[in-house]
Structures are given as C-alpha cells and as structure tokens.
Write a structure and sequence with these properties.
The chain is an alpha/beta fold and 553 residues long. 26% of the residues lie in helices and 24% in strands. Among the domains are: 249 residues, Rossmann fold (3-Layer(aba) Sandwich); 126 residues, Ribosomal Protein L25, Chain P (Beta Barrel), CATH 2.40.240. The protein has a 7-stranded mixed sheet with strand order 12-25-26-27-23-24-13, with helices on one face. Strands 21-18-19-20-14-17-22 form a 7-stranded mixed sheet, with no helix packed on it. It has a 4-stranded antiparallel sheet with strand order 4-5-6-7. The chain is elongated, with a radius of gyration of 31 Å. The structure holds adenosine-5'-triphosphate and magnesium ion (MG).
Length: 553
C-alpha cells in the first residue's frame, strides 16, 4: 500500500510493519469513538484527524462510533452535534455510523461466556468495599469473599441482575484476573454495574451497563477495527483490553496510545467545558471563546485550518502543552491568502477635511487581496468627513509614533495625504474631532515626486459607512495552564470578550453573509456572526508574543 512520505509518525511505523507482516490480512480500519456526553473540542479534532487520516492514507476504513455505555450523562443533543462536527471537519465514515448500545446484547453474551469459563463472577461488595479490597500500588489487593462463587450461581445471579431483581449498586459483575497484579486495572475490574437509568437509545431496556474497559475492546472487535488508537491515559488499561479479547478469543485489534492535545490558555475536558457552559462563564458550547469545534467554527475557523493545525503539531507519545499561537497561526496563514481586505474603524474619531468640497464624493480603487491578484479591486467612497481610529491620533506623540499628530501628515490608504491642522476637544478635554487638510495631488495615496510620510491609516467615509457590533476575543484564561490549579476557574480571563458597538464599516460589508471572513485592514481577521455582528477571529500578528516579550504578562 502506498502512502505519501510526508505523513509519518510512530503510529504509521507500527501500521507499516503490520502490513509488511500481513497482519489483519493487510487491512487498516480505524475509528473515532466519542462518548456523547458533551460537544467535541479541538483535542477531539486531533484524534479525528489522526484516525481518519490513517484510514485515508492506507485506503482503509474509518468508523464513527458513539461510545454510549453510560446513560447518566449522555444525550441526543450531543450525538447530533458530534455528527455535525465530525462531518464539518471532513472525516467521512461512509455508512459506518455505530452505537455501542447496539452491541449491548452481544456484550451480555460475551460476559456469559466469561462466566462459563470461570473468568468472571458476581460480587456483592459495596463500591467502598471493592475500593478497600483493591489494595494500592505497594500493597496487593484482597480477594472478594464472592470470588469463589460457582459458575452456576454466577450465571443465575448475573441473569437476575439483568432482569432487574436487584437495586442500584447491590451487585456487580467482575472479571476474575489477579488481585495481586502490579497493574491495579487487573485486580478483578468491574464489567457491569446495575443502573436504572433511561438510556438515550435503549431507553429502559437494560438495567445493567458495561464499564468502559469491558465495552471498549468489544466494540472495536465487533467492528473489525485493526488499530484502536487512544490517548496515553489508557496505556495502563491495555493489558486489560488484551486480556478480555484473549479470553474470549475474538478478533483482537491493537491498542496504540498517543499524547492527548493540551492547548495553552484553555481547558480541553468535556467536564470542564460543561461547567463553563452551566456556570454561564461563556454564552454556550458555541461561544467563540470556547475550544469546542462549534465555538471555533463560530469564531471563524475553517476545517482546513484545524486540519493543518493537527498536521503541524504531529503525534507523539508524551504529553505537552501546545501554545495557542500555533492554532491561531493556522487560520492566519489561510486567511492571509484567502480573506478579502476591507476598511473598518473600530473606535471612530471624526476627521473633517476642511479644504475638501462639501458635496463632493469620490470612488477610489482599493485592492481586494494583495496575495491574490485575481480578486481585483473594489470602489471605496470618500467624502469630506471620515473616521479614523482613535488611537491613530496622538496629541503629544511619543518617539516612535508615526501616525497622525498635530501638524503632521499621513497617508489615508487608497485616498490622499492629509495633514492635521486643528484638534477639537469637548469640555473634559477629550479629543472629539480633527480638522485636516488634504493634498489633491496625492490621489490614490501616491506621493508626487518622492514626498514621504511615515504612517498609512485606514479610514471610512462617514456618510457612507454603516455601524456594526464588533466582538473582540481574548484568551479565555489568563494562565497558560489553568488546569494546574485546584479550581481552573480562578484564572478565567475577565476581559476575554470586549463588545464594541459604534464601529464604522465600509459599505461593501453591508451584504456580507454570515460565516464569511474578512481581513479588516490593520486590525485582524473577522467573521460575520450574524447581520450587524462581527467576531474577531485573530489579530494580524500574535499580539501576546509582543506583550510577553515586554515582560508585562
Ligand atoms: P474529555 O476528557 O474531554 O471528556 P474524553 O477522552 O473523555 O475527553 P471521549 O469522547 O471519550 O472524550 O473521546 C473520544 C476520543 O477522542 C478518544 O479516542 C480520545 O482519546 C480522544 N481525545 C479526547 N480528548 C483528546 C485530546 N485532548 N487530544 C487528543 N485526543 C483526544
Ligand atoms: Mg471519556
């Protein structure tokens, strides 16, 4: 099987050698197995990209499987959102959408097979007792007094567990492995618990539910998965994964662990993300500050940028924290090539061009995207009153301030050179308006005979501009690793959202469709959230790097 050279990591090496030895008759079959207990986040994107990427690379198969074995936390809403997100990311599972709950009967039969082999037993110890009997890393565990139950008794009790004769937590089914194993996971782990819950698919059909460790390998085996790729926390569970499949003597996929993605200044755990939503620290799962796939989508990220991010970070065995900048750069790089440039003023300062005729209007040519000539130019209206950014003017400019100041000349992009003649202030001394004069000989922003100005400002014509709400986002957490605190919420960034209401936008943006992306010149990349509301995706450069360099954060 051919694969491209630029796609390689230790998992590809394992698969290559499996193929070389004709393991699994030369087939490659992966899966993405989310538990439908929350929305997917960027960490899941890494797993999707890896599993789907492998299937694609080796011309194998990829399954989407819901690991819906825990009725307490699972909901149809999550199933729907996960399907949408996986699809949006571009992973294609063909007709192989599966639910672990569809295998409940088969899992039950496999459990009976283990009991019949004397490899599983019904245990009446309470949850606390089981924990106490389990021992520690330095002390061996103690056998449950029920470990010696006869096969007949176990079969009878297990059937009665299923038939609803016992109450929640009264009995469990455990694997009979080794109470003194150095691996705690092998000390007679629980396979089934009693739970009278309403499952999102099987409703009240079952009152016993399989544990993750028991169920997961079976799900993989039933689907004919060849390489079961999971995150490193499961490395210690692999001997158990193998033990179950060996005892049952059924198709045995190989579990391979890789490092989970950790991203700076955010949290990647469905539990924590749910807490942020429920605690109203954000506006929902798709809040553009959330690291969820739907949050990133609403923020303006594209599937291509997310996939390219996943390729950039690669796959390793050891956990590390990837800087948020890496993710941001993935969308910057893409939008630099594809986004149309427009002029908008976020915090407007009125400028009257005193020597420009009162009723005159001009249409000036502006370049749509200097990175893509084919996108051509558009007309931008110009008139006597314009807006510039408040912070593009400074009454007493510090040394390296090259923008507008009293007596100073700057270029208005695509328009003219203007010079600041007069500063108008309100009663409190705030600058509210500037009076400038323009030089008609500089039309288009070109200087005649080498005259130079140091600053070029973006602007909008006051009478042509329209107002919109602009949402500026910053990191959700101020700390690089919020999870290192007992409560990650203490480093929530109180300034993660800034809403600007009086921004002025060039008229071409009036017809901008929801979801479309633009570069607002000098300000960053923005995405239309809905009519009249724009989300900032990222700034043009990594502004945090500068701050860190200056030692302020
Ligand atoms: P969470 O901790 O966010 O609840 P999880 O691992 O419990 O995540 P699952 O729904 O069980 O969530 O995950 C589905 C798949 O996604 C698993 O194979 C898991 O290994 C993978 N996955 C989850 N989080 C990450 C991550 N941060 N980086 C890479 N893969 C991940
Ligand atoms: Mg989980």
């Amino acid at each position: 099987m051919e694969k491209s050279k630029n796609n390689t990591n230790f998992i590809y090496e394992i698969i290559d050698s499996d193929l070389a030895s004709n393991k699994n008759a030369g087939s490659v079959h992966t899966r993405f197995p989310p538990e439908p207990n929350g929305y997917l986040h960027i960490g899941h994107a890494k797993a999707i990209c890896l599993n789907f990427g492998i299937a694609k690379e080796y011309k194998g198969l990829f399954n989407l499987r819901f690991d819906d074995t825990n009725p307490a936390k699972e909901e149809q809403e999550y199933v729907n959102s996960i399907i949408e997100d996986v699809k949006w990311l571009g992973a294609d599972w063909g007709d192989r959408l599966f639910f672990a709950s569809d295998y409940f009967q088969q899992m039950y039969e496999y459990a009976i097979r283990l009991i019949e082999k004397g490899k599983a037993y019904v245990c009446d110890l309470s949850a606390e007792e089981i924990k106490k009997y389990r021992g520690t890393l330095t002390e061996p565990g103690k056998a449950s007094p029920y470990r010696k139950r006869s096969i007949e008794e176990n079969l009878d009790l297990f059937k009665r567990m299923r038939d609803g004769e016992f109450s929640d937590g009264e009995r469990v089914l455990r694997a009979k492995i080794d109470m003194s194993s150095g691996n705690l996971n092998l000390r007679d782990p629980i396979m089934y618990r009693i739970a009278y819950a309403n499952h999102h698919r099987t409703k009240s059909q079952w009152c016993i539910y399989p544990t993750y460790d028991w169920a997961h390998g079976l799900e993989d085996s039933i689907e004919g998965i060849t390489h079961s790729i999971c995150t490193v926390e499961f490395e210690n569970h692999r001997p158990l994964y193998d033990w179950f499949l060996d005892q049952l003597d059924i198709h045995h996929p190989q579990q391979i662990e890789f490092a989970r993605l950790n991203l700076s200044h955010t949290v990647l755990s469905k539990r924590k993300l749910l807490e942020l939503v429920e605690g109203e620290h954000v506006e929902g799962w798709d809040d553009p500050r959330m690291p969820t796939i739907c949050g990133l989508r609403r923020r303006g990220y594209t599937p291509q940028a997310i996939n390219s991010f996943c390729k950039t970070i690669g796959v390793a065995k050891f956990n590390s924290i990837i800087d948020m900048v890496v993710l941001e750069n993935s969308i910057r790089q893409e939008l630099n090539k594809t986004a149309k440039r427009v002029m908008t003023v976020l915090r407007p300062l009125k400028v009257v061009i005193t020597n420009y005729p009162e009723d005159k209007e001009e249409e000036l040519d502006a370049i749509n995207n200097p990175e893509d000539e084919a996108t051509g130019t558009r007309k931008v209206p110009f008139s006597k009153v314009i807006y510039i950014e408040k912070n593009d003017f400074c009454e007493e400019p510090p040394k390296k301030f090259f923008r507008l100041a009293p007596g100073r000349e700057v270029r208005l992009r695509y328009a003219y050179f203007i010079k600041c003649d007069k500063v108008i202030k309100d009663v409190n001394g705030n600058v509210v308006e500037l009076h400038c004069s323009y030089d008609p000989a500089t039309r288009g922003g070109d200087a005649p005979c080498g005259r130079k100005v140091k600053g070029t400002l973006h602007w909008v014509s006051a009478k042509h501009a329209f107002e919109a709400e602009i949402r500026l986002y910053d990191h959700l957490f101020t700390k690089r690793n919020p999870s290192e605190d007992d409560d990650y919420r203490i480093s929530l960034n109180p300034n993660s959202l800034e809403v600007l209401t009086g921004a002025k936008l060039e008229p071409s943006l009036k017809t901008a469709q929801a979801g479309s992306r633009y570069q607002f010149e000098r300000l960053g990349y923005f995405c239309v959230d809905r009519e009249g509301v724009f989300n900032r995706i990222v700034t043009l450069r990594d502004s945090w790097a500068k701050i860190v360099k200056k030692g302020k954060k």
